[in-house]
Amino acid sequence: MKKAVILGSGLSILNGVEPLESIPYASIPSWPVGKVKGHKGVLDKYEDLWVLRGRAHIYEGFSWEQACFPTKYLAENGIEELIITNAAGGINPDFEIGDLMQIKGYLNFMKPDNSCRLSRLTQSVSNIETKDISDEEVKQASTEDEITLHKGVYVGVHGPNYETHAEVALFREMGADAVGMSTIPELETANEHGLKVTAISVITNVYGKTLDLGHEGVVEVAKEASKKLVKLLGLE
Ligand code: HPA
Q: Which of 92, 182, 204 best tests ligand 1's pocket when mutated (most atoms within 8 Å of CB)?
């Protein structure tokens, strides 16, 4: 099964490994090229795995359709399994910096006027299907670093600003566990195209526990947490 991974801010895997082919996003027609720091902007092709090093965000001015394009491209080019990663702020007070969260549901506050679903009027947006990571898999991956994998609800916001305290309190009441500015376009497109999908947030800051790290701080935490992702996903 051909697999792809989309890497969020500061996240990296297979760093020292030479890809078979490294394609700059800018050379692929219609591919949206984001400019956020910590995103390399290349599609690296390994034998059985494609790695998307970075993504374009709606807050950078890209349309919903553009944000969905890379996932559509993957589906149309033979990818059957997709792992989506992102950096996110923890809203659940039980979360700690560096924890991971598998996304089991989401609230879409990114751009409510649109979505990647083809059949918008008939499908429930809550029905995302994801492939589960078991407790046993987490235990096996926790040999060097202890990995905490929560399962929870991701709220996607437009950004680029982080949330006010009042917004965080509201999102928590609504059932959200983590907040970020990406992933929903990819998740919806992957579901539309029948890809097997796993989405994981790296918790880079926790509301009420950590001070505002800013984007630089988020990238630093994400870099550190990449090791856990690599282990958990068996991508060494
Ligand atoms: N809010 C939104 N996006 C984020 C955050 C946050 O606190 N941390 C990392 N990405």
A: 204
